[in-house]
Amino acid sequence: MSGKRYNFVMQNADLALLRQLSGNSGPYRDPLAAIDWSRLDVTSFWLPEPALSLYGLPEYDTLAVDVRQRMSQYEFINVIHTGLWLESVFVQRVSRRLDATLPRAEYEYFLHELREEAGHSLMFLKAIEASGLALAPGAWRAPGVADWLARHAPASGALFWLATVIAEDVPDKFNRYVRTDAAALNPAIRQICTLHIVDEARHIAAARSRVEAALKDCPPWRRLLLTPVMNLLLGQFVDTFYLPPPRFYELAGLTHGKWWRRTAARNPVRRRFVAQCLAPTLRMLEGYGLRPRLG
Fold first, then answer.
1. What is the distance between the alpha carbons of residues 162 and 223, in angstroms, rounded to a whole number?
2. Which of 40, 120, 121, 268 could form a disulfide with 188 if both were Cys (CB 3.0 to 4.6 A apart)?
């Protein structure tokens, strides 16, 4: 899409909303200073047990508590690496759009969001460092097709902003679930999830306004063509977010990581949990006249 078309679409977005969101972002909280890193340890759960991929299986009941705890830590590390990937793509794509010719409200909001996303990534890196659970290079990899689409879809088009909404809304709903059992969590992890929820509420609102602007005059046939690409992206992202790589199961103390990952993927309790977490996101996408579908 040309620069003129990009500006036309964005000028029709809700600039009043962007001004409001920028105002809410004004009192910036540096995550590195906001988190009590001294509370982060590897002798506690980092996720509620029902949020773990093996929960509900007979095999899970046989695992020692320390193995379950370590599994919760590596599953959260998987969430962190997914976040680092998504935020790096978003920062790269959006920073290239910064231009003095943008409406002031849009330009200012982008700067706020970039600052907050950079802070999230620094927070994630610090969590990995403070925990001592660093990974060998290549232990985590972004899903290929979803990564390519996120990096190459026109940054002003419906697909890019749909990808952004999905990438922000899916983790947000997971974090909100995690917070419902906050008393059982490591305090530093609780702080990380809380800070992320607060910031992402603004980011989701802004991304949704861009999706709505991009789809406003989109004919039904174009939405029909958009749906399978969106579903491919959604499926790869959900699979990556909710099922850690085989190596992570091994690092948690389980042998034959590939077998454990396949077992987790078939786990009916896990599948119901994921469906429950995804339900609000899928309803939102349906509200745009799309047909989200997994598997």
1. 12
2. 40
> What's the per-residue H, E or C state across 158-170?
HHHHHHHHHHHHH
Instruction: Give a yes or no: residue 13 inside a domain.
Output: no
CA dist 87 and 106 (Å) reads: 19
The amino acid present at 244, given as its one-letter code, is P
Residues 6 or more apart in contact with residue 245 via CB below 8 angstroms: 78, 139, 140, 141, 257, 261
For residues 8-20, b (16+ Cβ closer than 10 Å) or e, as one string? ebbeebbbebbbe
Domain CATH for 226: 1.10.620.20
Contact predicate 294/278, CB 8 Å = yes
The residue segments making up the domain with residue 132 are: 33-287
Query: Which tokens sit at 265?
Result: 């993927």
Q: Let me know: does 54 contact 60? Beta carbons within 8 Å.
A: yes
Look-up: residue for tokens 């509420």? 201
Flag whether 43 is in a domain.
yes
CA dihedral 251, 249, 80, 264 (to 10 degrees): -170
The confidence score (pLDDT) of residue 128 equals 94
* Model pLDDT for residues 126-156, shown as the tens digit of each residue: 999 999 987 888 889 999 999 999 999 988 8
The domain total for the chain is: 1
Q: Residue 229 falls within a domain, yes or no?
A: yes
In a domain, 294, yes or no: no
Question: Average of pLDDT values for 249-265?
Answer: 96
pTM assigned to the model = 0.92
Q: Any idea of the CA torsion for 30, 35, 37, 40, to the nearest 10 degrees?
A: -140
Task: State the distance between the two ends of the chain, measured CA to CA, in whole angstroms.
Answer: 31
